[in-house]
């Protein structure tokens, strides 16, 4: 039995990551290590947008 998987569009992925980064900045208590959470969201956005990565 085959399962059809539909991936999110790049537009949807970018919006999701921007929203996650916004949440990290607005609600830092939810993320423990805010610096790490912010870095990961930015790193993923840079990868998605094919920019040079940080670090």
In terms of per-residue confidence, which ranges show pLDDT below 50 for 5 or more consecutive residues?
none
Calculate the terminal CA-CA distance, rounded to whole Å: 43 Å
Structural class: mainly alpha
Helix content: 55-70%
Counted beta strands? 0
Q: Major sheet: size, sense and barrel closure?
A: none
Describe the model.
This protein is mainly α and 55 residues long. It contains two helices and no strands. The longest helix is centred in the N-terminal third of the chain and has 17 residues, at 10-26. It is extended, with a radius of gyration of 14 Å.
Write a brief caption for the model.
The protein is mainly α and 55 residues long. It has helices at 10-26, 34-48.
Keywords:
mainly alpha; 58% helix; 55 residues; extended; 2 helices
Topology:
Blueprint: H1 10-26, H2 34-48
Helix pairs in contact: 1-2
């Amino acid at each position: 039995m085959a399962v059809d998987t539909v991936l999110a569009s790049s537009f949807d992925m970018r919006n999701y990551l921007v929203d996650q980064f916004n949440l990290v900045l607005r609600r830092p208590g939810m993320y423990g290590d805010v610096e790490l959470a912010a870095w990961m969201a930015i790193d993923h956005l840079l990868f998605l947008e094919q920019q040079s990565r940080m670090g």
